[in-house]
Amino acid sequence: MIVVVGLSHRTAPVEVRERFASGSEGFDQVLARLAGRAEIDEVMFLSTCNRVEVLARPKGGSDEARARALKAVREVLAEHGKIAEPDLKPVLYEKEAEEAVRHVFRVTSSLDSMVLGEPQILGQVKDAYDAAVTAGTLRSFLARCVHRAFSVAKRVRSETALGAGTVSISSVAVDLSRRVFGDLEEGIVLLVGAGEMAEAAAKSLGKGAKEIRVCNRSIERAAVLAQRFGGAAAPLTALEAELGMADVVVTSAASPSFIVTHDLVKRVMKVRKGRALLFVDIGVPRNVEPNVHGIDNVYVFDIDDLEQQVAIGLEARKNEAAAAEKIVEHEVGQFLAWARGLDVQPAIVSLRAKTRGVLVAELERSLQGRLKHLPEGDRAALVQMVESATNKLLHAPTTRLRRAAGDGDAQTLTATLQELFELPVMHEVGDDGAPKVDDEDDDDDERAVQ
Amino acid sequence: MSHTLVNVLLFVAAATYSAAAVAFLLHLAGRGAGKTFLRAGVWLLAGGAALHATHIVVSSLVLDLCPIKGIHFALSVVSVLACTAYLIGRVRLRIDAVGVIVAPLALTFLVGSAAAHADASAAGPLKSAVLPVHVLANLAGEALFVLAFAAAVAYLVADKQLKKKHVTGVGARLPPLDALDRAEHAFLLAGFPMLTVGIITGAFWAERVESGSTVDVLRSLFGYATWALFAAVLLLRAWRGWRGKRAAYGTIAGFAFAFIVLVIYLVRSQSATLLHGA
């Protein structure tokens, strides 16, 4: 089966995660080093600001093979993060088989993210997958597991509201402006105050806006910020005129009294001929007089309102997480059933080869002896008959074996089959579909695909 | 057989409208993923309108009547036209979720018109060249006012949600306030000239018919009041910047008056049928 070794915001402090973000080697080098390890058969490397993870399939299916692969991954990670292996081990998580599959599905579905339901992780896993495909470090098994993880993430997105709602102040502000104006293609965003908070808000709100204007006591600071967004600057004395033009106003000025008063907005709304106006007041103390919210077509949201929306969004996502976990559990079961089916594949292939071999050999003997007078057409019909008989004969045992594998109890059946029919001990089905006969390495003779 | 077909079409159209209304509601309630229910609602509404139109055509063939003459047909035509205008304008005006109001209105008009199944000939002396213009202009105007009304109601709901600072929930799925306000204005602007033509031709026809019954006077009064209200909403918006909530209330009041005119038509039509039957 597969193993996962990694560290994330849940296990490692930011100082440790930083070391991996600026590691000793680039992403491709780490992947190449992992793929170059003899203990690893297939591998994918995922690196984000909150997570460094290696998804690998050990070479061989025994416990020892898994332990060797885990150690190999630890060594590569320790070298990459420039941390001694013993120091790294406490912040690492290691997951195997079913637990590893569940982890991959949960991570891809954003159930293990710092912000539950954030959409970026799916893209990051896809990038890691593409890199592994390009580097040729993935084969059928791991590729199927990751593909399945993408499907799970899609199901979680479409069947639950895990990604719905807004969970940051800036996203709430963007959401509010959408609720009032739709997109801001023709809209003007006015920043009152030129501090860091104004800049952060402008980054999110200003993306689709027609123009960003900055109004500040210090016109110089306003000009610097406005220049950064390709907008215009104005002094605070021009606030009334600026409010007449703006659609969304973000206020974050340091002021002991209200900058935007009820009377001011009343006057402005006459000039605006009732056009809607949205205030996002992130200043503390507040910059906008609260009763401004009572004016028709004017909406004021202060920092408490925004934080309340964030809390609601997070709570809603938590409620959806249970439904998402159910989907993950179901999909883990499906994947494991498929993977267990691979366990019996060598026995099925072997049984089929033996049955067909016996029948074809007998047929050949007859065709060279008593039946040698048969014309070519009849010979072909007999060969076809043998094929058909093999299929019919083996249909029931094949189906039962696969069903037993899905239920997790195919081991006895497989062993019995090998004993009764004197089948060779085969382990893995290669990418070409042919079983590999194992004649050495007793460690691995349980199951290669498990 | 033909009557059975009419009934089947009526039932299926009503069921499709109901399903559309449920789909739009589920979309607003945030059920399902993304826009699945919204898309379903739009398709169901389109299907319902197509079935409804077929019902009108088949019914008029069965009854051997022009579909614009009877009041019950007129009600039906209004809702089909409203659905069509919504389906055409929804993307451009970004008012997808207004379907939650359009679908039940269409259903009400469909069922209402079926319930008011009256003899279309009860509409009075109809041999006038002005009458088809009068009826068609009123029907088109009424259909656009249905949409303006729907946009106004959605605006008030969305505005109330924002004023209460409820950012999540039903309001989150409604179109943006600005889009609703523009849509309401656009529908009023398009419907008002139709209503004006309807009023002028109505006055001309009334003079010819010389009917002075109380019901006709009432109908005329409410017709003029509707025109005056919509004119005021449009004028005040342009002159004093009355938009948003005020415009929405004005539109709803105007639509209520227009609806009263329809009800008066309906009552008169029913009474005439009863008298005719007696």
Describe this structure in words.
The complex is a heterodimer of chains A (450) and B (278). Chain A has 450 residues and is an alpha/beta fold. Chain A contains 15 helices and 12 strands. In chain A, the strands form 3 sheets. Chain A has a 6-stranded parallel β-sheet, sandwiched between helices. Chain B has 278 residues and is mostly helical. Helix content of chain B is 81%, strand content 0%. The radius of gyration of chain B is 19 Å and the shape is flat. Chain B starts with a helix and ends with a helix. The A-B interface holds A 157-159, 161, 164-166, 172, 175-176, 178-182, 269-270, 272-276, 293, 296-297, 299, 301, 305, 308-309, 312-313, 316 and B 30, 33-34, 36, 94, 158, 162-163, 165, 167-168, 171-172, 175-179, 181, 237, 240-246.
Structural class of chain B: mainly alpha
With strands numbered from the N-terminus, the spatial order across the biggest sheet of chain A is 7-6-5-8-9-10
Order of helices and strands of chain A: EHHEEHHEHHHHEHEHEHEHEEHHHEE
Task: State the separation between the terminal residues of chain A, measured CA to CA.
Answer: 5 Å
* Radius of gyration of chain A using CA atoms only: 32 Å
Class by alpha and beta content of chain A: alpha/beta
- Largest sheet features of chain B: none
Strand content of chain B is: under 5%
Low-confidence stretches of chain B: 118-126
Could you say how many structural domains of chain A there are in total?
3
* Regions with little confidence, pLDDT below 50 for 5+ residues of chain A: 431-435, 437-450
Average residue-wise pLDDT of chain A: 85
Taking all residues together, what is the mean pLDDT of chain B?
80
Based on the coordinates given, report the CATH architecture of the largest domain in chain A. 2-Layer Sandwich
Largest interface: A-B, 33 and 27 residues
Gyration radius of chain B, rounded: 19 Å
CATH class of the largest domain in chain A: Alpha Beta
CATH superfamily annotation of the largest domain in chain A:
Glutamyl-tRNA reductase, N-terminal domain
Instruction: Find the count of extended strands of chain B (DSSP E, 2+ residues).
Output: 0
Coarse morphology of chain B: flat
- Describe the main β-sheet of chain A briefly: 6 strands, parallel
